[in-house]
Amino acid sequence: MFSATFPRSIESLAKSTLRSPIEVVVGNRGQTCSSVEQKIEVLQDNEEKLWKLVELLGLWYERGAILIFVEKQLDADDLFKELFNIGYKCLVLHGGMDQTDREFTIQDFKDKVRNIMIATSVCARGLDIKHI
After folding, report:
1. CATH of domain 43-131
2. What one-character DSSP code corresponds to residue 4?
3. CATH 3.40.50.300 residue ranges in the chain?
4. pLDDT for position 44
5. Is residue 35 classed exposed, middle or buried when 0-12, 13-18 and 19+ CB atoms within 10 A define those classes?
6. What mean pLDDT do residues 60-78 have?
7. Which residues, in sequence order, are bridge partners of residue 116?
8. Among 122, 121, 118, 86, residue whose Cα is nearest residue 105
9. What is the pTM of this model?
10. Is 33 within 8 Å of 5 (Cβ atoms)?
């Protein structure tokens, strides 16, 4: 998981723990928001990760937009199916989609047609997160 408000100590921990992390910088580097609380959990098992995500969605689903980053297109599609089967209607965004579909998906997310979007980090690099 990534946050636009990582302090350097948390960034170092994330980079030392994660495999092939992708960094998206919004705003000025090194500045954190004092009102944001950050928590990190390291989970190994994919099933454990899914149920932790479902737990978090239960807490945050009604509060606003949720953007979930995954590494690969297949991961995005698989997670989309898992969440759909559990009852969460969401959007998926990755490079395997044509440009028109990606643009409609981003617009649907911004328009709150769905409040969960699963995206590969490469596909989301051009996403203007601050306007969602």
Report:
1. 3.40.50.300
2. T
3. 43-131
4. 85
5. exposed
6. 90
7. 66
8. 118
9. 0.67
10. yes
